[in-house]
Amino acid sequence: MRQLRLICWTLITALGSISFPLAQTLNYRWDINKLYQYQVEVQSDQWIDFSKIAELMKEETDAQATAPTGGRQRYEFAFKATLEVAPLNQMSANRWLLTYRWRKVSANLKIDNQPLSTEESKQFARLFEQTIVFVETDRRGKIERVWFKGADSNAPSRAILRAIVARMQVVMPAQSQNRWESEEDSPEGTYLAVYERTALEGKNWILRKRRVSYTVLGDTLFPSSEFRPQGQLRIVWDSSRGIVHSVEGQITTTNVAKGRTLGEDVSRVKVQYLGIRPLPASERQALLASHRSVAQSAERLREDSSKLSESEKRALDRQVLGKENYESLMRQLKRLPADAGFDEASGLMNRWLALVRLEPSVCKRLEPYLRSLSWRSAQAQVLLFALREVGHPPAQAVLRNLAEAHFKKGDQESYAYYVSLLAFLELPDVQTEQYLLEKARHQSREIAYPARLALGSIGNTLKKKNAERATRIVDWAISNLNRAGTNDEKEIWLYVLGNLGHEKALSVILSFVKHSEASIRRAAVSALRFIEKEEAERALLSAMEQDEERMVRVEAFSAYNYRPVTARAVQTFEKVLQKEPDKTFRQEIVDKLWEVRERFPQVVSIVKKVSLSDPEEEVRMYAKGLLAQR
Known about the structure:
Blueprint: E1 34-49, H1 50-59, E2 72-92, E3 95-111, E4 114-115, H2 118-129, E5 132-138, E6 143-149, H3 156-168, E7 179-186, E8 189-201, E9 204-217, E10 226-238, E11 243-257, E12 260-278, H4 281-294, H5 310-321, H6 326-335, H7 342-358, H8 362-371, H9 378-390, H10 393-409, H11 412-423, H12 430-440, H13 445-462, H14 467-483, H15 487-500, H16 506-510, H17 518-526, H18 534-546, H19 550-558, H20 567-579, H21 583-595, H22 602-613, H23 617-627
Antiparallel strand pairs: 1-2, 1-12, 2-3, 3-4, 3-5, 5-6, 7-8, 8-9, 9-10, 10-11, 11-12
């Protein structure tokens, strides 16, 4: 479930580079006759703000509607186990197959300070002990693929083990180096990691690792999501054995979308080498046989269901669904409390998702039941999640029918909510496009506005999947903007073009960035956020530096939550820091600069200057805090 994948993290920051004489290359030297034992301890304290998530969903389609109420949920996880790593074979000159097995597991989970019962904790621990993780690495230790034996795809233990395995990943340099980089997978995406040798203690090298930035995100609810790291891991490399001796540190990951913090995870990790024991040939052969039984189910550590083929998705759905059917799932759904949280509903959501994908005909049966429910109820959210995520034509038809039913009843809030679900479809069909076009022409602003913004969102989705349809939508939006008679209408159509993010609209958007009305200028700079053209960036940076209205300057800066920061942007940010009167805005600029310090080394000196000369002590202290992380 995408919402619950928003936080599953391991992030690290850097210390300054230290020079050492080059030593021998750091290579893994596994012995297939040995089994390596480690003590592993992980403590994770994380929270997810479902209210912020709901607000963002509403903003995608109707800024006037009321967002559903939710709340911040806190998850505290404690894990302690003995890990047994068995190198099964060298698959090629550059590939190893390893197994991770967990013994003497102690695991507990608190949700909003409510712990599992003693029996539940024991059952939770058994899930880990029953799971074998097979890991394929290259010769440097980079994890290429994983397989799971004994944990079904919906088991929480599987998701947690995926995160723990990612946290323990240590990649060596290709040649003897004091500093090296590696692109590595974790559940939340693919990131660039930087390693440094910092000391030599006897035969052990002391390393530090940090994650610089994410190059690819896994399954996330919002394309604009980003992960921000703090903390570091200290790694001890045993060069005499050619293995990791220990990994220890505290790591913090913050998930942000559109300037809002959706969640945060603070994890303490400790991995300590215990020793080795012989690996009997019979045990090794049994593990190899177990691997053969799951060999066709290889996965990456990154959660990315879009990479699965349709047959793989169906096989996974059948596994998730098990022996359940429509009737049994409906009984479970009706027993679910109307105010149930995500933790209670997540398993049921995934099973309904599997059923809707495997049996499209159930959609018609769900529609009458959904009409009887408030969309805020847990029961409705379970089913709507499945319909939106699957998004095949029968599912889209139900969502359109629900929107239309509430439109006819005059329930504008519910109508706007169902339209927002149409905006999030991965591949909206022509009927959905036509329905939104019809509503976008409605004389009532409350009816037309959500549909117009939704059309902008699906036009953006279609850019890479059906360019002809996307172009048709952008032409329609440009035509309406050109005919708009009032400033309110112009503002609306600029926001629609902003959701579209189509280069074809660039010239018409640019014609509004110097408009006399500040609200129009704000909408115009917002509409440039997805257009990565030089003309768009020049207009954004000019507005940020020169516009007299704070809201326009902030909107121009906010575009960099959606587009990469460039050298030109860094220069402008520095100029704005020197004259921007709003201290909160200056602090936000410092924060954004700090995120890109690895690509632009001059950022450190810019932040140092802020720490010494900013007129507000609060901003100076904030900059000093960032510098202390180096």
